[in-house]
């Protein structure tokens, strides 16, 4: 009886130990120095002279041999003792051998870029006939404004040249990595689907093509391409070899997922393929911006998180990996741990095949394998060595990863989850935070702390909503990913079932998109930060200081609440509070010239929360931010003075989330592609488009305006879009404002002689034509004689706007001249009395 009594506590203790993870000692960091040394060596050697790589390999191998020799050990033993000398010698030798391997691999990869006929022909800008093999999924460039037009949307394809032939010369075999830039001829500033119908986008990796292209040197520095091939893509690709069987399988599965998601709401339809297999072909620039503003872009790329979720489904949560009551599918089905490991390997292989075995996917699988080891062993100490091993192997396999910001962010995020997050989670639990909330906060905070400086290098901006948005999105990421993979697997055999599963996955995917859009719409979603590594170092110092202060604040709940409230106010930025602190916008503003870079966008006050918008600038984001800062939610009319891209490409920013009554345009629809894009955007938003002409008068609240140019029946001076600009005489708050669009001197002279000229004399404010260019009519400037001249132009623009002569002429006529490139957004308000009839506020 007594023996049984004594045995029971022991059995209970064993059961308790089995239900808890083993206590781990300090992290095993022995593999970290070799991995970091290989990483740094590869980054340096990729663009080093060829002899450097050979010298580094020889020197490192010889040094390792010396350390491992008897004499080297004896030399170390005199200082450190025999046992420590042996350990030190092995560690340093391993690091040196990894350096040698990285130098050799980087030297060979760098030679591929520098040697062979392709770089030589690129330096001559030769026209060639080349046979290339596609190595990655094609992708579209973002629509962008180039001058007053939209740059063509291009398809970017990473490939390898296998054979190249110059006119009049024999074909030469080679193997050089190149970037194909395929011009689709599509210039659509307001069309999210621009270029998406191109047959070049449907090409699968491993497909062989024959292309006629112009060669050009790749960008010097960190590029991994031997040359750039510029291809006219209007005729479509000419394939000379089909894709491999694995790529065809992956292509069918990905196409099946796209078909299964075809009927989902727009955001879920675009996002779900990206969450599952990294297919972002449907993600619009607007949605992509929202994910970038909230630091959620990792959800749009294939990452270790995707793989980890699938492994967790198979093996159970990491915290239960060593318990008898694990809750994964494998233990519930009675599958042994060893068989489960085999299943995990098969799953890893399938993941790589479906998501394409390019470097980013291989990186994701390797980092996800760290989670596989954690789930299989339950030992936290084994994770850091596993991560170091993954980094080492990947850098040796593809040295270009050592210069990849994506690779750096992936490693930093994984390292933060393995090292910082557990400690921070434990600290939060000690202060009374529930375990699940503590783990989520610690994981998001640790990843953000390490990754934010690198993000600042790339974007010169720091997100203030990243942590809460990641926490809110995290809850939906797992169900969206798991259901998305089920839809992917079901699509080839049962499309109705795949569509039903995709419909279920659309709910969490839509939630993630709403989180991103809501976070990005916050006025204080992010703050500008110095770019480059200097800015990264500064942000790192600020982060460390914030963490030190945060440790003390955890002891004082009231101070924590006060800091949280302050952060919420910074993000939400209630307009009354912002106006009190910054004075923007002025209480009685009548017109605001938004700072939209090299372009035009004006807002005329038309009542509480309403404003007439004149032009939309070259980019949707600046004009959207400007209207939001003014509290404009209703737009009775958008006037597009003419169809140049620097005036209309930002139209979607005006339409975003606002009630718009109509769009008025000039009668000359040139450039035709941009005019068509405006009509498509208006039709999609359900906004009517009308033409406006001289003599038209309208009113909105206290605001009234008259169109003074162009004449309805045309005019001999109207020879292009600039001279067809809509010019308006605006009356508001006792002020008269003359808005000239981009009128050139011939149209300006005709306007000064028109019947409306008598009303243009002595205006209060002049919106100077064509961004203050040198082409101005002195007669019209003399007639207008403005008190205040406003110029909308971009900082350091290549056109020299505004022209110094134009500024001097305006000042000589008694006008105060302000410009957005130096003064920011400008608000016109009625004067305070006396001789001052107009005032201006700067933002």
TrEMBL record:
Name the record gives this protein: ComEC/Rec2 family competence protein
Main location: membrane
Segments passing through the bilayer: 52-70, 91-111, 296-315, 335-354, 360-376, 407-425, 437-458, 464-488, 529-549, 556-572
Matching Gene3D superfamilies: Ribonuclease Z/Hydroxyacylglutathione hydrolase-like
Bilayer topology annotation: Multi-pass membrane protein
Location of the protein in the cell: Cell membrane
Domain Metallo-beta-lactamase intervals: 598-795
Record key words, sorted: Cell membrane, Membrane, Transmembrane, Transmembrane helix
Taxonomic lineage of the native organism: Bacteria, Bacillati, Actinomycetota, Actinomycetes, Kitasatosporales
Region (Disordered): 1-27
């Amino acid at each position: 009886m007594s023996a049984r009594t004594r045995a029971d506590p022991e059995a209970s203790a064993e059961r308790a130990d089995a239900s808890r993870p083993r206590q781990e000692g300090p992290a095993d960091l022995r593999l970290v120095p070799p991995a970091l040394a290989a990483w740094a060596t590869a980054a340096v050697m990729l663009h080093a002279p060829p002899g450097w790589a050979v010298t580094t390999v020889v020197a490192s191998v010889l040094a390792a041999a010396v350390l491992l020799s008897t004499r080297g050990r004896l030399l170390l033993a005199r200082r450190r003792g025999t046992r420590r000398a042996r350990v030190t010698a092995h560690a340093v030798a391993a690091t040196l051998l990894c350096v040698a391997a990285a130098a050799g691999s980087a030297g060979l990869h760098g030679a591929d870029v520098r040697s062979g006929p392709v770089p030589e022909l690129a330096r001559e800008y030769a026209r060639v006939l080349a046979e290339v093999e596609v190595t990655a999924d094609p992708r579209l460039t973002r629509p962008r404004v180039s001058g007053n037009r939209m740059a063509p949307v291009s398809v970017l394809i990473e490939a390898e040249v296998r054979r190249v032939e110059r006119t009049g010369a024999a074909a030469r075999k080679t193997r050089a990595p190149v970037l194909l830039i395929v011009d689709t001829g599509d210039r659509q500033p307001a069309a999210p689907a621009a270029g998406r119908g191109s047959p070049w986008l449907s090409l699968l990796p491993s497909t062989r093509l024959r292309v006629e292209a112009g060669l050009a040197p790749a960008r010097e520095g960190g590029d991994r391409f031997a040359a750039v091939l510029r291809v006219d893509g209007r005729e479509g690709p000419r394939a000379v070899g089909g894709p491999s069987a694995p790529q065809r399988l992956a292509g069918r599965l990905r196409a099946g997922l796209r078909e299964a998601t075809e009927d989902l709401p727009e955001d879920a339809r675009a996002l779900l393929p990206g969450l599952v297999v990294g297919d972002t072909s449907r993600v619009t620039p607007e949605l992509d911006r929202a994910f970038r503003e909230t630091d959620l872009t990792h959800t749009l790329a294939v990452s270790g998180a995707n793989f980890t979720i699938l492994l967790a489904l198979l093996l159970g949560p990491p915290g239960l990996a060593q318990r008898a009551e694990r809750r994964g599918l494998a233990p519930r089905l009675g599958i042994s741990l060893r068989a489960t490991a085999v299943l995990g390997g098969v799953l890893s292989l399938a993941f790589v095949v479906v998501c394409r075995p390019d470097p980013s996917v291989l990186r994701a699988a390797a980092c996800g394998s760290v989670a596989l080891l954690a789930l299989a062993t339950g030992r936290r100490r084994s994770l850091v060595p596993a991560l170091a091993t993954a980094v080492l192997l990947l850098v040796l396999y593809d040295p270009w990863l050592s210069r990849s910001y994506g690779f750096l962010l992936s490693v930093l995020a994984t390292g933060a989850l393995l090292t910082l997050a557990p400690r921070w989670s434990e600290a939060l639990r000690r202060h009374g935070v529930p375990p699940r909330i503590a783990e989520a906060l610690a994981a998001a905070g640790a990843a953000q702390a390490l990754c934010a400086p690198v993000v600042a290098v790339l974007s010169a901006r720091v997100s203030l909503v990243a942590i809460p948005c990641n926490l809110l999105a995290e809850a939906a990421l797992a169900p969206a990913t798991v259901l998305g993979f089920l839809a992917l697997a079901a699509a080839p055999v049962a499309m109705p079932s795949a569509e039903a599963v995709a419909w279920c996955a659309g709910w969490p995917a839509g939630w993630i998109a709403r989180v991103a859009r809501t976070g990005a719409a916050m006025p204080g979603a992010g703050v500008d930060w110095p770019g480059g590594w200097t800015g990264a170092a500064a942000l790192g110092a600020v982060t460390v200081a914030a963490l030190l202060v945060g440790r003390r604040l955890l002891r004082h709940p009231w101070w924590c609440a006060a800091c949280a409230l302050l952060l919420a106010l910074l993000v939400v930025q209630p307009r009354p509070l912002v106006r009190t602190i910054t004075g923007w916008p002025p209480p009685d503003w009548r017109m605001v010239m938004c700072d939209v870079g090299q372009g035009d966008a004006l807002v005329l006050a038309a009542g509480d929360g309403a404003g007439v918008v004149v032009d939309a600038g070259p980019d949707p984001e600046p004009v959207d931010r400007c209207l939001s800062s003014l509290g404009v939610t209703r737009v009775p009319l958008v006037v597009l003075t003419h169809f140049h891209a620097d005036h209309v490409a930002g139209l979607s920013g005006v339409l975003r989330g606002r009630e718009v009554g109509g769009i008025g345009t000039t009668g000359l629809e040139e450039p035709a592609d941009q005019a068509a894009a405006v009509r498509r955007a208006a039709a999609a938003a359900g906004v009517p488009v009308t033409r406006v002409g001289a003599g038209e008068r309208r009113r909105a609240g206290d605001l009234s305006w008259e169109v003074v140019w162009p004449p309805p029946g045309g005019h001999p001076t109207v020879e292009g879009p600039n001279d067809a600009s809509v010019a308006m005489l605006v009356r508001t708050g006792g002020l008269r404002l003359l808005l000239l669009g981009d009128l050139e001197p011939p149209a300006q002279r005709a306007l000064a002689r028109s019947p409306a000229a008598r009303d243009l004399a002595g205006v209060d404010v002049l919106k100077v034509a064509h961004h203050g260019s040198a082409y101005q009519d002195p007669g019209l400037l003399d007639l207008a004689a403005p008190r205040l001249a406003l110029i909308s132009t971009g900082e350091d623009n290549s056109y020299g706007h505004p022209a110094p002569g134009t500024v001097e002429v305006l000042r000589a006529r008694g006008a105060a001249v302000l410009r957005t490139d130096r003064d920011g957004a400008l608000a016109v308000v009625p004067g305070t009395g006396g001789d001052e009839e107009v005032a201006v506020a700067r933002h």
